[in-house]
Amino acid sequence: MARNPDDRRRLFRRISLLVACIVAGLVLIAYLASPEQEETEIAVRYDLTLDGKSWSTAIDEGNIRVELGQDAAKLLTLYSTGSGNFVSELDLAGSNPSVSNQFGNLLWPQCTRIATEIFIDEDIPATTRAQMRDATIVVFLWLKELTGLDIVVTKGSSERGQESSTAAHRISTPDDNTIAIHWVDKTNTVMSPKELAVATMWATLKRGQQIPRSTRIRLSSTVFDTMPDDAIERLSRKMAIAHELSHAFGIGHSNDPDSYMYPMLTPSASITPADRAALALAGSRAC
Length: 287
Description:
two-stranded antiparallel ribbon
């Protein structure tokens, strides 16, 4: 028996809908089976003079690989504020991350090998250049131990391999996964007389996180003119270097005047339990 026009139209619509569903299913299968498409990376630059808001994200998501004493470990406790946010004892102790925003804390991943390069202005006396090189290496090894990160000095680690800091070097962007340290003579116009250090970090926004890409730090020779030669744990040249390098690893200023991360180093400055907890968090981002 012949179908009427309305029946034929309904049959056509059903067939069309079935074909459309089949095509959509095939497209979805092809997309899921294809290699993962890499998300677009957006590079951002931070001049590390601002402090972040809270360590809570790093504590919640962190994978701490270094041993902490009881005083430092108990600071890594989170408390609900009652408004959906969290605060840590480390926050209350005055420690801050260098950068934290809607993408979380700016921290190096644990699986990243961080190359460190040391450049020294040729205008600085040879004896002082050697002292700068040795002190910088000591601080890097100290940070490697207290963060658990894979930090390797790849340039400027010896007198024979000494790298000169030139004007072009001091404004260039370091290679990926590289921290470049530039010791600059205090009379060089690249830094003002009152500046002891300037730090800049480049980061990548990827998959909702900000990941460090590279860092450039300029240190003034004034540090060696004004600071005593002592251990990192006391007011010294090494402590001043450690302060600035710690910014490059994600640690901001502290509100505690006795902390080595206080904006101005004081005679009572030391490595406090809060500082040790923050250093452990700086190396806690899992891959």
